Amino acid sequence: MNDYQKKFLALYEPVHESFARFCHAKAYGLMEAEDLISETVLVALEKFDKIKNDEAFLSFLFSVATNILRSKNRRLKFRAEYNESEAFALKNEGIDAETRLDVVILYKALNELPETQKESLILFEISGFSLKEIAEMQNANLSAVKQRLKRGRVALADILNSEKLLNEPAYKRSKLLLTIFL
Which of 11, 19, 57, 146 is deepest in the core (most CB within 10 A)? Predict the structure, then answer.
């Protein structure tokens, strides 16, 4: 292993858990989280020399992962709704059918939000990052992140209460959806 790879691993190991949580939340329904992590690490290693500040490494990983997902989403925008491997993966999580349905609907609603609001909600509510950390990752000030979270929660509540969602045939209303972010 050369010095280049050692430096990359030294920066990657401390942020792996945070990065993995981010990937699991962002990749839901679009691709396997492990695939996203692998592709991101590969691209990040290839472009590692472009990082000027070691403190920006986690933000760099988030940007690479987000770009990979955008690219994948553009290619898959006409794909079918049912994914057998995803259905089997949900069965193995040990959660009941109603909660699985709620999670699927929640992520579908999250995907309708603007990218900055969606990312802020995922980082704060699902991945557990602090407001200050999110502000650094998104190159924004603290009040902008708070505003994104507030607007994202309101928009998410509107989406979850929308007629479109209420008319989905398999949908059963659950308080879980409204209490997750409110």
Answer: 19
165: amino acid identity, one letter: L
Q: Check if the beta carbon of residue 148 is closer than 8 Å to that of residue 120.
A: yes
Residue 87 to residue 80: CA distance in whole angstroms: 13
Which tokens is 120 given? 């802020």
Fold of 1-79: Rna Polymerase Sigma Factor; Chain: A (1.10.1740)
* pTM beyond 0.85, yes or no: no
In order of 62, 68, 77, 164, the CA distances from 105 in angstroms are 24, 23, 18, 12
CA distance linking residue 43 with residue 28, whole number of Å: 20
Quote the Cα angle for 36-111-127, to 5°: 55
Which tens digit of pLDDT belongs to each residue from 65-81?
988 988 877 765 555 45
> Which residue ranges make up each domain of the chain?
1-79, 81-182
CB-based contacts of 137, cutoff 8 Å, min separation 6? 58, 59, 62, 123, 129
